[in-house]
Fold this sequence. Notes:
CATH class: Alpha Beta
Distance between the termini: 55 Å
Number of domains: 1
CATH topology: Rossmann fold
Number of strands: 7
Largest sheet: 7 strands, parallel
Structural class: alpha/beta
Strand content: 5-15%
Strand order of the largest sheet: 3-2-1-4-5-6-7
CATH superfamily: NAD(P)-binding Rossmann-like Domain
Order of helices and strands: EHEHEHEHEHHEHHHEHH
Number of helices: 11
Amino acid sequence: MKELKQKTVLITGAAGGIGFCTAKMFARAGAIVILTDINVKELTRAKKELKEIHENIYSYVLDVSNKILVDTVVTKVIKKFKKLDILINNAGLGYTGELAETSFDTWKKLMDVNFWGVLNMTYAFLPHMKKKEDGHIINVSSGQAFFRLPTWGAYASVKLAMACFSEVLYYEIKKHNIDVTTVYPFMVDTGFYDEADPETWGGKLSMRLVPYYSMKPEAVAKIIFDSVEKTRKVERVSFLNDLAFYGRVVPFFSDSISRIASYVLTKNKDD
């Protein structure tokens, strides 16, 4: 079990949802928590609330897709704290839509935040972790990397690419005593899905029912926190993700799920 008191933890996308709940858990454990987010107003609120739990709470406004801003924040963090023990790459952008109708601009936004954002943060802090021969990087992917459902193809593709990077990185930097954990949340009841704008009745219904079949952000935060304490390599979070993961070796199972999802979520030919 890792001792987390006075460990320096930086969390991206920390102003709300999973990021905020995770920050709260580390604050309660006595860690030095650094919040980053692109939303200035919510970041200020989050910092104020966490300050009531623990005094060592700091924040930086940050767009993880902007490498120049990332490098600037990293320089400030290292100058102030001399190190970073734990990096949690949680910031993400949601999207749903059929692949044939997904614009290159949308692909670029997804890649910039969900893929390059993780690489920007990881490569900026990695030299400092290698220098002190210690550190832990947690990358938050998505259960869509296993399900790969119609209308979620673009989002799943980017999250799957990021997860591949993360899982391979685990083996390559273990020699530097740096751990990497890849986390695959199932559907989570946060404002994340507010950005999804499905066009079909099935898609709209699935978004409306999110609170009833999804996990609470507090539950996912606890899993992330435990994965750091216990130094887990992969955390699939939900038995449904396990089902999708192992179900891919059974063609009939994965094909049936995709066909049902296609019928419910995609538009008719004449739409």
